[in-house]
């Protein structure tokens, strides 16, 4: 069943603590993306995400056809937007990998593949095709995942880092449980107001996220974040999302 809504405003959910991922070149300090400090030319784009310093973590609730578990939203992607509300896509054609599964397995992430097969699905193409699209379209635009940022770079390891961070962030944003705790559950007849949704989710961080609806049915949620230091730090700071970023994207 779908979530039916009268309006489309919602708040973000808190994020997880930092991760321990691939060894990277050392940065002197963790600078928050989109801050005044991040603008300095002395700060390497390997040490702070720029210009794509605001990240949108997007989630699906698919009903046509039904995709993913019946008690959880699923991952759409993790998108780096520029700090002015614009965004870049498909930033490096040389790294448009066509076998994400093998890349993850070669980097010791077989369990991550298993999780993604359940929680990172498309309702219109294979999981592998979906992952390839998300990486080439969005992952290649993350400055701190550039191969030059790795001291002993091996092809594909930056993609493995991207998917690990995206999944771990998703796990910290349990949209279904947050709504369910307030009695907001999928229904073919019930509707919910924006104030009900905000009351359920703004208790967590107070940061407003964005909802996408189709035919008055909720199908997507966007959460905004800045990041302290490289993306692999996974040190996310919840942020609001500007109106210019609230566009239909894939």
Automatic annotation (TrEMBL):
Q: What is this protein called?
A: ribonuclease T2
Q: Which residues cross the membrane?
A: none
Q: Tell me which family the UniProt entry assigns to this protein.
A: Belongs to the RNase T2 family.
For this protein, the record's Pfam families field holds: Ribonuclease_T2
The protein's matches in Gene3D superfamilies, at most eight in alphabetical order, are given as: Ribonuclease T2-like
Catalytic activity, EC? 4.6.1.19
Q: Which organism is it from?
A: Xylaria bambusicola
Keywords in UniProt for this one? Disulfide bond, Endonuclease, Hydrolase, Nuclease, Signal
Q: Which GO terms describe its biological process?
A: RNA catabolic process
Signal peptide bounds: 1-18
GO terms (molecular function) for this protein are: ribonuclease T2 activity; RNA binding
Top-level EC class: lyase
Tell me which residues this entry annotates as catalytic. Answer: 76, 134, 138
Keyword Signal, does the record have it? yes
Q: Does the keyword Signal apply?
A: yes
**A GO CC term?**
extracellular region
């Amino acid at each position: 069943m779908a979530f039916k809504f009268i309006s489309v405003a919602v708040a973000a959910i808190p994020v997880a603590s930092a991760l321990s991922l691939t060894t990277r070149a050392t940065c002197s300090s963790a600078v928050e993306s989109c801050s005044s400090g991040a603008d300095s030319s002395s700060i390497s784009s390997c040490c702070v995400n720029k210009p794509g310093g605001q990240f949108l973590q997007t989630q699906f609730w698919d009903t046509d056809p039904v995709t993913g578990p019946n008690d959880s939203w699923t991952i759409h992607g993790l998108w780096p937007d520029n700090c002015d509300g614009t965004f870049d896509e498909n930033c490096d054609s040389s790294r448009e990998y066509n076998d994400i599964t093998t890349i993850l397995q070669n980097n010791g992430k077989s369990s991550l593949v298993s999780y993604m097969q359940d929680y990172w699905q498309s309702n219109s193409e294979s999981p592998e095709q979906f992952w390839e699209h998300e990486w080439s379209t969005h992952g290649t635009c993350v400055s701190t995942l550039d191969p030059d940022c790795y001291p002993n770079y091996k092809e594909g390891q930056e993609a493995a880092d991207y998917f690990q961070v995206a999944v771990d962030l998703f796990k910290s944003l349990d949209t279904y449980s947050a709504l369910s705790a307030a009695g907001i559950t999928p229904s073919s007849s019930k509707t919910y107001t924006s104030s009900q949704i905000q009351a359920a989710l703004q208790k967590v961080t107070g940061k407003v996220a964005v909802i996408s609806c189709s035919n008055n049915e909720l199908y997507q949620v966007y959460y905004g974040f800045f990041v302290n230091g490289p993306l692999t730090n996974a040190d996310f700071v919840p942020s609001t999302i500007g109106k210019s970023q609230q566009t239909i994207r894939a």
